[in-house]
Amino acid sequence: MKASVNDVAERAGVSVSTVSRAFTRPELVSERTRKKVLQVADELNFSVSRSAVALKRGQTFRIALLAGGHIDWFSARILEGLNSVLHDTGYDLSLYAIDNDDDRARFFDQLPANRNADAIIVSSFDITEQESERLRTMGIPVVGINIAATTGFDASVGIDDTAASQILVRHLVGLGHRRIAHLYERSISPLRFSSYRRVTGFTELCDKLDGVTGTPIAVEHGDDFVNAAFTTLLSRPAPPTAICVHQDSWAIPFFLRARRYGIRIPDDLSIVGFDDSDFAAEAGLTTIRQRPREMAQLAARMALDLIDGKTPAEPHVTAPVQLALRDSAAAPPR
């Protein structure tokens, strides 16, 4: 027969309420007593019904992750980081891919009726004032990862995309480059992604530096990124000597294709990326290193604190970045 809570209490020599608290409110039980209860429960193969606990506490034991666009290197690391914290706490993580306004409206329309999340984590884009107010009235905390603005978020962690982009510009200018381009894909999504601050950061700094020409070049969505970029660059009378590529997943194929076309990297052209994602080191790509897995771990801990009614000591955290220097950038050709 399946062991009951009474069986655990009798063998552990504690009350039934102590057994219940050991599973549902461990902060109210001494560490010694809790370990004893858990050991006995393990010996008896006893487990608490999570649905019963959820009903009693009014919780779903689920956290929703809203992620914009497709699952790329960054999103995969976010999932890894969240799972590494939430897995052992009894919380499930539900992923909602938000590609357009319809997806977004559907989620926020259905949430009040379903009440199927104890907290919401938003990755890389903003929420509207109306969405924020709806979550606030429902008592659901919202945490952002690499969001464009902290308005409407109870807590957040992310890099400063503007400052990080300008680190790359300063590095290239320090090497002697004066004609620099920033390659990015023109977004067709209605979501306001934080990464587009890299473009504004690039242009703002280039405009301030004497003798430096910064040219943002947008590649249309759906085009072959590398071919479209080469066509645009080679058609210019005075092509750039250095290129900032919006993210490594585009910079690495651009880097490899350039060599195939007889363009020597970095002798003829310097290339830098952003993310320090998989294979960036192997390709020798100079890039900005960010750590989405660690940011997600902190976001998960913030969400758990907010669910428990605790305010994080530092609600909005700017995560550090690093310039990863490799072989793809050097002084411009004479």
Question: Would you kindly provide a written description of the structure presented here, covering whatever features stand out?
Answer:
The protein is an alpha/beta fold and 334 residues long. The protein is 44% helix and 17% strand. It has 13 helices and twelve strands. The strands form three sheets. Strands 2-1-3-4-5-11 form a six-stranded parallel sheet, sandwiched between helices. Helix 5 links the parallel strand 1 and strand 2. Helix 5 crosses helix 13 and helix 10 crosses helix 11. The model has no long low-confidence stretch (mean pLDDT 85).
Spatial separation of the terminal alpha carbons: 83 Å
Radius of gyration: 25 Å
Strand content: 15-25%
Helix proportion of residues, in percent? Answer: 40-55%
Q: How many individual helices?
A: 13
DSSP strand count: 12
Given helix and strand content, the structural type is alpha/beta
**In which order are the strands of the major sheet placed?**
2-1-3-4-5-11
Order of helices and strands: HHHHEHEHEHEEHEHEHEHEHEHEE
State the low-pLDDT regions, or none.
none
Question: On the 0-100 scale, what is the average pLDDT?
Answer: 85
| Largest sheet geometry | 6 strands, parallel
Rough shape? elongated
